[in-house]
Amino acid sequence: MIALEEKITILPTLFVEKRDGRRVVFDVDKIDKALHKAADKVMDVTPLVEKRLNDLTERIITEIHSRFPQGIKIYEIQNIVEHELLEAKEYALAEEYITYRTQRDFERSKATDINFSIHKLLNNFSTKTRQLSMKMLIKTVMSLTLSVI
To answer: How many other C-beta atoms are found inside a 10 Å radius of the C-beta of residue 61?
Structure first.
């Protein structure tokens, strides 16, 4: 019998498009780790559960490679994982995976909102304000330097 790792290495290289537009090589371990992380929270990971997780990982990877041979977006991977978990009637595992994904999406959204707000504030400063801020910064650095000497 061929091990999961051996089957996976036979597949061609696939690229994943991240949310920020970067393209990275598809990493099978990330799916395996996500499933194990969810399983650890909702069940005891016995050898039988380990086999089910390996089978699920194999089905997910096969689905990804068959449907998206030219590349895949990160959210498509997540949708396939959810679909396969529900198809396998792994409802508790699916619920934990979906909850984690939703939480991460929310955190990512908050971080993006904060970064956008900061960027907007910085861009709203006039040239004059920037010049004054720079002068104040230089004066502060100089006075600190002189007080040390």
So the answer is: 22
